[in-house]
Amino acid sequence: MPKETWVTGRGVRERRGFTLIELLVVVSVIGLLVGILMPSLLHARLLARRTACQGNLWALGRAALVYQMKWAGDVPVCWQNVDLQRPRPWKSWRTNLLAYTPRYNAFNCPGAADSGSLGAVFHSADEVRSQELMGTVNAGSYGVMYQYALPGYRVVNCAGLIARGHPMWSCAFSALPGASWTDPAASVYAADAAITREPVTYPTRGYKHYGTSVIMPPSAEEYFDSEVTRRFADRHCGTNCLFVDGHVTSYETAELDGMTAGAPDCVWDTQ
Ligand SMILES: [Zn+2]
């Protein structure tokens, strides 16, 4: 170790470098500090993503309100009709909101990783409008509540025509507020969504990067049993939810998954 001598008023002293034990103590302290600070730094990053995600949903909520004004209170609730045999395929809820959204990126949650392919995040407005199955059903970060696309609800296509029957493939468009949404301020319209590709139970953390355009309510029979289900995603310490009236709230994903249809605190149930 380097040594030097120096003179003080009291005499000559010898100055040594750090001993091995001193170095180990310093390294241990630094390691301890990193161990203490890292979780809070990671948590802060998650919270920043949560806030940015809330901004996205707020923008989509603005778009949905403008859309409601144009279409007599209807908002898009399902995905695109991919039956290209039809003369004029209907648009997905995202394509319809895109016209009133400041940027296509509002459909991407900042907590979603980009795998570089469809099914992760959108890379352009054209991808949002894509008529490809994977470009409409299993892409992006947010899904609308499938609960609102029940056969009994009125559904309206982009020409303002009322259609009846199950909207999944035939119409996939709008529902009638008031009839389906008895309490817009307590009804989730869209939220962080993820597709699961095998039977799973909560948590869905392993699936947080895959997108889907709709969310199946936990009350659906196939929610826990199906090989492919569409669920609330957990990208930033929980799920952000956009309500029909335009406000955004964060929930723990487990809290949403654990809600019971018909219970007073159930925010996705409209019955
Ligand atoms: Zn998010």
Summarize the structure.
With 271 residues, this protein is an alpha+beta fold. The protein has helices at 20-70, 93-98, 125-128, 133-136, 167-170, 253-257, and strands at 4-8, 11-15, 75-76, 142-145, 155-156, 162-163, 174-175, 188-196, 214-215, 229-232, 239-243, 248-251.
Distance between the termini: 78 Å
Count of individual helical segments: 6
Number of domains: 1
- Please tell me how large the radius of gyration is: 26 Å
Keywords:
single chain, 271 residues, alpha+beta, six-stranded mixed β-sheet, two-stranded antiparallel ribbon, 6 helices, 27% helix, elongated, binds zinc ion
List strands and helices in order, with pairings:
Layout: E1 4-8, E2 11-15, H1 20-70, E3 75-76, H2 93-98, H3 125-128, H4 133-136, E4 142-145, E5 155-156, E6 162-163, H5 167-170, E7 174-175, E8 188-196, E9 214-215, E10 229-232, E11 239-243, E12 248-251, H6 253-257
Parallel strand pairs: 4-9
Antiparallel strand pairs: 1-2, 3-7, 4-8, 5-6, 8-10, 8-11, 11-12
Zinc ion binds next to loops.
Describe the protein.
The protein has 271 residues and is of the alpha+beta class. It has one domain. Helices cover 27% and strands 17% of the residues. The strands form four sheets. Strands 4, 8, 9, 10, 11 and 12 form a six-stranded mixed β-sheet that branches. Strand 11 and strand 12 form a beta hairpin. The N and C termini lie far apart (78 Å). Zinc ion (ZN) binds next to loops.
